Amino acid sequence: MSRRDILTPIGITLGFIMIMAGIMFNGGVGGIRSFIQATSVFIVLGGTIAALLVNFNMIELKLAYRAVKVSFSKDSMELPDLIRLFVKLSERARREGLLALEAEVDELEDPFIKKGILLSVDGIEPEVINDIMSAEVSAVEERHQRGRAIVEKAGEYSPAWGMIGTLIGLILMLEDLNDPATLGPQMAVALLTTLYGTFLANLVFLPMAGKLANKTDQEIFKKQVVIEGVIGVQSGQNPKILEEKLSAFLSDEEKERLTEVEEEQVEEKEEANEA
C-alpha cells in the first residue's frame, strides 16, 4: 500500500514560488504579466509531447504515466516493519507449520510478499523460489527504467524546444527591424520559451527522474530483503536468527528503531500478563 509523497509537490511548488518571488521583487505584481506567454507554452509543451510521441510507443508512454504516479507516492511499509512481519511469519511457521501461513496471506497487502509466501506454502524449493522472485525483481527494474527514460527524455527535449521557440521569435523579430521600439518586447517574448523549457527540465522532469531512480533502488533493495525473508521462513529458520540476518540490511537508525519497538512490545506483553 502506498501513501502520498508530499516532498515532490512541495519541491515543485517551492521552486515555482521562488521564481515568482524573484520576479515580483524586481518588477512588482505587474512584472509577472511579462513572463506569461501562451505561445511559448504551446511551443515548449507541444514540442516536448510531440518529440516523446515520435521517440516512444504507446505502451512505453503508459509506463511513464505510472512512473510519474510513483514519484508522488510513498511506500507505507518500512524495512523495520518488513523484518517484524517475517519474524512473525517465521514464528507461526515453526509453531504450526507452513500451511498455517495461508491464513496470513489474505492480510498481506504487498503482492510480492504474498507471492513469496504462497510459493513457500506450496513447498517449492528455496533455490526455485529465489529464481522466480529474482526474475520478477529484474522485470520490475526494467519496467521502472523504461518509464524513467521517458521522463529523462522530456527533460532533454524541453530546453531544446525552448531554444526552438526562441529562434522562431528572433526570426520574426528580425523581419520587423523598422520599429526599434518593438525590439525589446519581442526579444523578451522570444527568450520566454527558453525560460519555460529550462524551468520544466530543471524543476520538474529531471528532478522527477532522479526521484524515480532513487525509488527504484529502494524498491529493489526492499524486494531483496523480502526474498531473504521468504526463504528464511520456508527453510524453517529460527525467528531470532532470521531477524539477525535481515537486520544486516538496516541502517544504524533503523536498527535502533526496531529495537525500541521490540522493547515496547515486550513491555506490553508483560503488562498484559500481569493484568
UniProtKB/TrEMBL annotation:
- Assigned GO CC terms: plasma membrane
Q: Which is a GO BP term held by this UniProt record?
A: bacterial-type flagellum-dependent swarming motility
In the UniProt record, does the keyword Membrane occur?
yes
Q: Which domain of life is it from?
A: Bacteria
Q: Localized where? A: Cell membrane
What Pfam families does the record tag this protein with?
Answer: MotA_ExbB
The segments labelled Disordered in the record are: 253-275
Q: Does the keyword Transmembrane apply?
A: yes
**Keywords, ordered alphabetically:** Cell membrane, Membrane, Transmembrane, Transmembrane helix, Transport
Mark out the compositionally biased spans (Acidic residues).
Answer: 261-275
**Transmembrane intervals:** 7-29, 35-56, 154-174, 186-206
Q: Which part of the chain is the MotA/TolQ/ExbB proton channel domain?
A: 106-221
State the membrane topology: Multi-pass membrane protein
Q: Which InterPro entries match?
A: Flag_MotA_CS (IPR000540), MotA-like (IPR047055), MotA_ExbB_proton_chnl (IPR002898)
User: Which family does the record assign?
Assistant: Belongs to the MotA family.
- What is the protein's name according to its record? Chemotaxis protein MotA
Q: Which organism is it from?
A: Salimicrobium halophilum
